[in-house]
Amino acid sequence: MKSNWVLMVVLLLISGIASAQSTPTNPGGFLNTDPRSPYYNSGNNLPPAPPQERWADRWGAFASASSGVFGGAQDKQSKRQAEKSALAECKEKGGDDCRVDLSYYNQCGAVASGGGHMGSSRAPTEREAVEHAIKTCEKAGGSNCQLYFMGCSLPVRVN
Prior knowledge:
Layout: H1 2-21, E1 55-56, E2 59-64, E3 70-76, H2 79-92, E4 99-105, E5 107-114, E6 117-123, H3 126-139, E7 146-153, E8 156-157
Antiparallel strand pairs: 1-8, 2-3, 2-4, 5-6, 5-7
């Protein structure tokens, strides 16, 4: 009788272990705290956040000399690079007293001249920059102000 009792206890234990290991709701018998379980919950039910977009600024600049010579630079990585490049171009074209008239980043810049006067502007779009540069030239006393130079230096996505 004692052996039947022991046998029954052993069979109950084995059947309990077997049912805990593999059930229709728990394939593989893993607990939901086990990373191997298809029902594993680490406590974070949200999907991972997508990587943040990163953008790099781009700079542009215009330089001019009293002789009417201009120099321009676009898509430079820093203000200093843009201004240095614009000054160098102005000097290469024969400007003796070149100076930076306009620096801008992540937008457009324009220079208009006429009647011995000039106007410069920066704006989010080409059209706005050009219109404002011509108006600035006219307000400075320029006649028949025309677009001389226009460029955009827009941010660049780096990831």
